[in-house]
Design goal:
It is globular, with a radius of gyration of 16 Å. The chain contains 6 helices and no strands. By secondary structure, it is an all-alpha fold. The protein has one domain: Alpha Horseshoe (Serine Threonine Protein Phosphatase 5, Tetratricopeptide repeat), CATH 1.25.40.
């Protein structure tokens, strides 16, 4: 997408902050917010970057806005989990992911095992169960699609 910050362009891209480029990641996160300040995914990713670079007050402000969007059905809780993860609040991040998984659509959970933002949760049994359950759902959908053909 032309003009879209590199950091926010792909769910599979490793955040710049993991490779020692915190200023670049912060600049890209702020640019993303300037381009699309009300986009829940942008808010979640930028909030994560703000949190891990020490701008926790700004991250918490984005989290509060995102939580309102979730309550009104305008966002999945998955993006709030990004910010919780950046703030080091693993329990809340997992609660948000489970809330998303328990919704009827599981919106925003596709490929969560590939989001580096959530790497800090990988060792947690709740996260592992969530991934296993999502994989089971994917497999059963795939099987039901195959049998319908």
């Amino acid at each position: 997408m032309k003009g879209w910050p590199r950091f926010l362009a792909s769910p599979n891209r490793e955040p710049n902050i993991c490779s020692g480029h915190a200023p670049d990641a912060l600049e890209e996160a702020r640019a993303g917010l300037a381009l699309d300040p009300d986009n829940p995914r942008t808010m979640g990713e930028a909030g994560y970057v703000l949190a891990v670079t020490g701008h926790t007050d700004q991250a918490r402000e984005l989290l509060a806005r995102l939580k309102k969007l979730v309550v009104h059905g305008a966002s999945t809780p998955t993006f709030a989990a990004f910010i919780y993860s950046g703030l080091g609040q693993k329990k809340q991040a997992l609660d948000a992911l489970e809330e998303a998984a328990n919704s009827k659509t599981c919106c925003g959970l596709q490929g969560i095992d590939q989001w580096h933002i959530l790497d800090g949760l990988q060792g947690d049994p709740r996260y592992q169960r969530l991934i296993a359950n999502l994989e089971g759902m994917r497999t059963s959908r795939s099987l039901s699609n195959d049998s319908a053909r």
